[in-house]
């Protein structure tokens, strides 16, 4: 392993070599049979279980370093591997192994009047770059998911988890080797030098097709602003829950509590509650009381405070804040139109939900709001590839290009056209 | 109209305003009914026919300028509008008007065990930037195609055709207005200052979602290297035609002549002919003679020259040259494997064709070559959105992200998820 003192030029040379190896590996990978990819994934899971002790020992090193540098408890928690977490990791890879292989699937086909038969067929994207922080399990998740879609992957984990990630990575490459696939299909950047990230963002001379950042807002922001290749990501999830005047009160309360409080730290957690002015007298108080009873801090607009006393006032900043915590901003709006206006202004285009019985309000919500995921009478916390039935996800994207919403195996693919003729030439 | 002497800061301010107006227009456009978009397109076509004299007068100005600056005859031809070309332009818009509106189409839908019903629905991309050169008809084609997909568009035409393009653009905005759509849905950059292009490539503060360059290689190269937003384009079309030993000779001859000579200046024209060594003694000479008879210059590998005397020798550079002219490079290869290797090395991933009767050779060609379009027993010149049945196309993309191959109305869209529940909350 190279350390942080390596000079920049050496890191760039190293990264370009990694890029070339990834591109070279992508070709055999793109034509590997489903059986071979399946075998590699199953072998990886087996090696992870067999390597339990080594992985735990490597993780102990990372944890010791983290404690010495005085990292926060939440950081230590994300970094920590246990026997149970390692088993989950192996099971995650086995679940990915059982997903239907998307490569070669005919997505669409049609005939032309001249007899040409056209097929649009799924192909791998090529080389994926994954840049992540302290969670060592991303090594296994991202490596397995990219392989399942026939892509080569370059993994650049956080320096804090480098020992854990390398121990996991060793299990992945052994699995590739056993199945007769190129080990360079899943490469891990062997240096913690930050210049490696810059090199990946430059695209490594055209040898990285897409970058997926996994981590906090500052990482995603850097990747989005500096990357010279496409990025699948969301910067933040300022998710809204709108309670229409036609909402059933019980359902509204239950969904609001779940959308905000089930897990407050995930991107699909609701950050702003919008209540239709027309039902504020009946719905507002029970919802806020249920949230407060679960320990949620309420930051209220003036109109909300006029109806429910003793609340903290929301500032303008609150409407565009992703708390990722037990805090929610609350405003009244003038029906579905008001909700749409508020969301158009403040949303991060990730996920929004409406609770309503009125079909026309739901249709306006669905048609007029341009977020990746819109839900009716369901919690925003369903914004997740697993919950969508996609199996694993590598993240959620809010961009509009290529992948949008949960990014699973299918979203990590491209396509090509296969055209079958019997001698057609083009007239004219 | 601002002229080329405007200072850079003023141009940038102007462009940012154009970007904001485009983004603002994109929202009403995204929810406009199919009928309204249809009405706008039909009105545009009507105004173009009604404005024939004005458009021809504007074009005469551009032609006068071009002749004064001593432009080449091919350039003058691309720039020239005639009554018949203007009628074609109007008919092109009418054809786009009759395409099925892609927006709101449910691309996929499924149910989850918890009762959630998930739909993936087509939405507009947002704002498209189109940068083109001397062909004034791109103004109409691109404007109409972007509108049909519910997108706002910013058109930046070449300075040589600015008068023609502005006359056409005036017809488009009148059509938008008549249909009650925002005129800013189709904006034309009113300055020929080159700083306007740089501003568009920067993405105009997030107000351009994708750039489509239409023009020569140097334009596309600049756009691809400088754009900070996704680009739908192909830099070049180094298209290969492979004649397998199992090819029917008549078909091979006919397809080779059509693939190269039907039109030599289009991106789907074949630039390299690969002939299976196993059929060189029977197939090579008749194919080369047929090409030569049509006036095609042959640049041959040594092995080809050994079989057919008096040919010009190909250099290494020829294998990666897009002639866009009546020239073809010819090599012998060792069967389908050799063809795949040659194409992997030199192709621009645009379009490749195989002539063969052997199904297994065709399957290898289709599986192992990663170009946007692969054809069996058909001419490479079918690489075209119209020939694919997509109606109009805005270009052909060789990138793997989002759009690939012909870029038609459907490829100018994104999607979102609509999830319908009846009170579901997420457990755990």
TrEMBL record, chains A, B:
Q: Where in the cell is it found?
A: Cytoplasm
Alphabetically sorted, this entry's keywords are: Amino-acid biosynthesis, Cytoplasm, NADP, Oxidoreductase, Proline biosynthesis
Q: Which reaction does it catalyse?
A: L-glutamate 5-semialdehyde + phosphate + NADP(+) = L-glutamyl 5-phosphate + NADPH + H(+)
Enzyme class name: oxidoreductase
Give the domain of life: Bacteria
Q: Where is the Aldehyde dehydrogenase domain?
A: 19-291
Predominant location = cytoplasm
Question: What does the UniProt function comment say about this protein?
Answer: Catalyzes the NADPH-dependent reduction of L-glutamate 5-phosphate into L-glutamate 5-semialdehyde and phosphate. The product spontaneously undergoes cyclization to form 1-pyrroline-5-carboxylate.
Family recorded in the similarity comment: Belongs to the gamma-glutamyl phosphate reductase family.
HAMAP family assigned: ProA
Q: Which NCBIfam families match?
A: PRK00197.1, proA
Q: What is this protein called?
A: Gamma-glutamyl phosphate reductase
The organism encoding this protein is Rhizobium aquaticum
Question: What phylogenetic lineage does the species belong to?
Answer: Bacteria, Pseudomonadati, Pseudomonadota, Alphaproteobacteria, Hyphomicrobiales
Q: Which gene encodes it?
A: proA
């Amino acid at each position: 392993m190279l350390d942080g003192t390596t000079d920049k030029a050496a890191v760039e040379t190293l990264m370009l070599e990694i890029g070339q190896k990834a591109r070279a590996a992508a070709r055999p990978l793109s034509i590997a049979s489903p059986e071979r990819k399946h075998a590699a994934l199953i072998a990886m899971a087996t090696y992870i279980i067999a390597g339990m002790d080594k992985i735990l020992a490597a993780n102990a090193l990372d944890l010791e370093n983290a404690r010495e540098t005085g990292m926060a408890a939440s950081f230590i928690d994300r970094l920590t591997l246990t026997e149970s977490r390692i088993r989950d990791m192996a099971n995650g890879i086995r679940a990915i192994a059982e997903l239907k292989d998307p490569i070669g699937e005919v997505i669409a086909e049609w005939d032309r009047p001249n007899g040409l038969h056209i097929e649009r067929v799924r192909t791998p994207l090529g080389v994926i770059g994954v840049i992540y922080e302290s969670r060592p399990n991303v090594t296994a998740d991202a490596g397995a998911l990219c392989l399942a879609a026939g892509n080569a992957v370059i993994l650049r984990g956080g320096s804090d988890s480098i020992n854990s990630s390398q121990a996991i990575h060793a299990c992945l490459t052994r699995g590739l080797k056993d199945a007769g696939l190129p080990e360079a299909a899943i490469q891990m950047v062997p240096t913690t030098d930050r210049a490696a990230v810059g090199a990946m963002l430059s695209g490594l001379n055209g040898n990285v097709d897409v970058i997926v950042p996994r981590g906090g807002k500052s990482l995603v922001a850097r990747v989005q602003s500096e990357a010279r290749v496409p990025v699948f990501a969301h910067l933040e999830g300022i998710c809204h829950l709108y309670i229409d005047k036609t909402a059933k009160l019980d359902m509204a309360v239950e969904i609001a509590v779940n959308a905000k409080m089930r897990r407050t730290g995930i991107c699909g957690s609701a950050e702003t509650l919008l209540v239709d002015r027309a039902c504020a007298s009946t719905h507002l108080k029970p919802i806020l009381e249920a949230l407060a009873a679960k320990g949620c801090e309420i930051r209220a607009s003036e109109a909300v405070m006029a109806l429910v006393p003793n609340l903290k006032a929301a500032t303008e900043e609150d409407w565009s804040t992703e708390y990722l915590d037990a805090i929610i901003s609350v405003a009244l709006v003038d029906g579905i139109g008001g909700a749409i206006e508020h969301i158009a202004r403040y949303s991060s285009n990730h996920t929004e939900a409406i609770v309503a019985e009125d079909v026309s309000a739901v249709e306006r919500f669905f048609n007029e709001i341009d977020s990746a995921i819109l839900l009716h009478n369901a919690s925003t916390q369903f914004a997740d590839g697993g919950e969508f039935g996609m199996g694993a996800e590598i993240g959620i994207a809010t961009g509009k290009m290529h992948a949008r919403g949960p990014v699973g195996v299918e979203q990590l693919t491209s396509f090509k056209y296969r055209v079958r003729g019997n001698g057609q030439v083009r007239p004219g």
